[in-house]
């Protein structure tokens, strides 16, 4: 918890800035400039950027060498980063959910409360999945190399999806998935996101235990 508290102290100004951005975007949604679903997207951005910024500050200050000498050592460093990422995701999710429910109750958004909750839960899963990929890269390669690797991965995934989509439209559409698969999809994706985050934690522990500081 001490490591987590340190991260919140170091990033307190950046966190306030993100809260300001959320407030500005909420005002733009109310004014009709953007649709309401831009708010859950901010949840994913916050959940991804804050852990990366935290690691970047640690690299600049060479914090890892000092923190590794504390009683909780390397395991505490990794645990603190994952807990910090999780708290950032959950905290921003609560804020976004409150804003979207307020928009729904005041009639400024057509989606029901159930649809809003499912949207926010989906974005939580996306943020967990992205952090599950990002954090081991940060512990292995540091922030600068990890940014490049992450950009290449995103380009490959989105580019591949675009190519598959265009080929599907050109030749033959994909068959419709069965109803049981669609019904189980939210639970399946949630298990994948949470399970991936847990597996990622142990991968990062193994990486950081062998890393030379």
Can you put this structure into words, describing what you see?
- With 213 residues, the chain is mainly α.
- The chain is 85% helix and 0% strand.
- It contains seven helices and no strands.
- It has helices spanning 2-10, 12-31, 38-61, 63-67, 73-105, 113-170, 179-210.
- Helix 5 (73-105) runs antiparallel to helix 7.
- The longest helix is centred in the middle third of the chain and has 58 residues, at 113-170.
- It is globular.
- The two termini are 22 Å apart.
- The model has no long low-confidence stretch (mean pLDDT 82).
Summed up:
This protein has 7 helices and no strands.
Please write out the topology.
Blueprint: H1 2-10, H2 12-31, H3 38-61, H4 63-67, H5 73-105, H6 113-170, H7 179-210
Strand content: under 5%
Q: What would you call the quaternary organization?
A: single chain
Arithmetic mean pLDDT: 82
Give the distance, in angstroms, between the N- and C-terminal Cα atoms.
22 Å
* Low-pLDDT residue intervals, each spanning 5 or more residues: none
Number of strands: 0
Q: What's the helix-strand series?
A: HHHHHHH
Structural class: mainly alpha
Q: Tally the helices: what do you get?
A: 7
Q: Could you name the key traits of this structure?
A:
213 residues, mainly alpha, globular, 85% helix
